[in-house]
Amino acid sequence: SAVISQKPSRDICQRGTSLTIQCQVDSQVTMMFWYRQQPGQSLTLIATANQGSEATYESGFVIDKFPISRPNLTFSTLTVSNMSPEDSSIYLCSVGSRAVLNTEAFFGQGTRLTVV
Amino acid sequence: AQTVTQSQPEMSVQEAETVTLSCTYDTSESDYYLFWYKQPPSRQMILVIRQEAYKQQNATENRFSVNFQKAAKSFSLKISDSQLGDAAMYFCAYKTSYDKVIFGPGTSLSVIP
To answer: Which of A11, A53, B76, B97 has its CA 20 to 30 A from that of B63?
Structure first.
């Protein structure tokens, strides 16, 4: 299993500002994923972050709005840029490893973001 | 593209009774994994049960079991002897060969004392 620490757990931000969310894993992992969960909704994948390469974004998400860093195999950050109230959501970090195909995805505890 | 559908936005069950949550999915892959995740108000995603598509036998985990119908692309979750702590959002999920997990819209389960 993997233990994932996400920081901050929650934040209230002013519109127009940016917030960087950190995700730390207790073991080396090949791929890290960032999800958004809007109020009362399911989880939607924002992007896949591989170490040493640029993140791959899903349809509807762009790098300018959600820049991602993956400096090593245990850490990643997601920045929510130029925030608006519509960005108020829970953001979750997840990890997986293709080397162990039958494992589930492990999740951080999420960051609850409120934009005012 | 893979999709996951949960047709029951809300369900309720009497404590100690049994409830079944429905899930269907669409994929062209032959090898994949299916999961049920539970999300209580703490928002932590908790794995309830998983099923490998190549296994015909339905997965079971204590009070939780699935009915996996590969040809029908159906993956329902049965919760037996429901407990108050089972109240949560339940998400059916599909894991692609690239490790992306695609979630269904969720079913909110209430347990009535």
So the answer is: B97
